[in-house]
Amino acid sequence: MPITPPPTIDPVPTPVPSTDDPSNFDVRADNMLAWFPGGIEAINEVAAATNQNAQEALGSANAALAAQAGALATSTKVATSYSNLTLAAGVKTVVLQETGRTLEDDEQVVLIYLGDVENRMIGSIDAIAGQTLTVTVAEGGVIGSGGPYNRWAVISASLLGVGASVEEERAGESKIVNSTPGSRTLAQAAQTLTSAATVAWDVAEGANARLTLTGNHQIGEPSNLKDGLIYTLDVNPATYTPTWNAIWDFGPESAPYLRPSAWTKVRAQYNEDRDKLEVIRTPVGWIQIASQAAPGGTSAIDFTSIPQGYSDLLVVIEGASTASGISDVKLSVGRSSFSTAQAISPSPSGASGAFYGSVLIPHYREDAGSVLGGAGVHASDNSLILPGSFTPLGATWRVASGIERVRISVASDTFDAGTFTLYARP
After folding, report:
1. Rounded CA gap, 272 and 227, in Å?
2. Is the model more confident about 61 or about 53?
3. What Rg value do the Cα atoms of the chain yield, rounded?
4. 3-state secondary structure of 13
């Protein structure tokens, strides 16, 4: 933009002081009057130059604004609407005045109230029918309140600098706007699911969730899954056992055993090509499956319906004694019934000692395998019994489809004490 320089204004002539020449007033006045024509003309030139520069600056600004307005007016991502809309979260039906707009499904738009442009809503287009848009506005996408108003600018969020809301972060819908550290952090907050016959989980409300079961319910197929994202479900089964929708893929193993009244995290990544939630397993140590104290008067301790989601089983025997003090301890395994019991310990010489030991059953979900371990009679703490004093157990088994039940028993006798604990590991 060219700038017109103002002219130089001649200085006003210096009059002769009246104290030096009191009689020359007329001369001084004449000198002053003689200056005015040229001085006024110069002042007018300055004013004209200033006005010209201001007009040129205003013209340039108006041209820039006009160009911006023209770009918006001609953009197919901008429209106006006279629909009655209230500044609040929810589903909005927006009828565009213009035709030929290229707004698309799932595109974010900003609805600006033209009566007060500080009031606006940010939403996502769910459906388009001709000039009618269905736009869903989340709680975090509302700035201002009031309405209904019927003068709106509808602008694609790609043309504006708009921050993502917490709800958009949770839903994974914000494709073209900036995130903030705060919104990303808040988006990770876990939602609480309701236990029902089929547990529903809308992951658009949060990729992390907690669930306490109130029955033997099914963990259903989550809705709004997105390819490649990882979802975490923290489950407290209480006293119940859940089933899992087929979308949950536990790999070669079945669903993990959930310890009663304890929280267990199940983390999975969604594979859109397979339409599966592929559960991510992490190595852990031995997990206690069940524990039973001998009630006295019983000849066998049974562990049935053993979870099939692990690799190995371990049975630990602590302080087991028999009523007669002479019976040995036996092991039997099976699926629908028990095998013939095999002794895993020598018979005690009297009632003063108690059985301690363990039995390891590797790969119990196979059709066949082996059993390793044994038990010995210990009369005192901090004792170690070596082979020669007892016979270690080494046996093989065959159970079609794998072991689902384990029994510890005594022959022709009953237990009167002891604790029997079943462990498993992945």
Report:
1. 5
2. 53
3. 43
4. coil
What's the whole-model pTM score? 0.46
Residue 330 CB partners (closer than 8 Å, separation 6+): 341, 342, 343, 344, 408, 409, 410, 411
218-219 vs 198-199, strand pairing mode: parallel
Confidence of residue 179 (pLDDT cuts 50, 70, 90): low
Q: How many CA atoms lie within 13 A of 118 on its CB side?
A: 3
What's the confidence (pLDDT) of residue 337? 94
Which tokens is 46 given?
A: 């300055």
Amino acid at 251: G
DSSP notation for 197-223: SEE--BGGG-SEEEEE-SSS-EE-PPB
pLDDT beyond 80 at 37: no
What pLDDT digit, counting tens, does each position of 124-135 carry? 899 999 999 999
Q: Which residues of 345-376 are buried (b: 16+ CB within 10 A; e: fewer)?
A: bbebeeeebbbbbbbebeebbeeebebebbbb
Q: Is 103 exposed, middle or buried (0-12, 13-18, 19+ CB in 10 A)?
A: buried
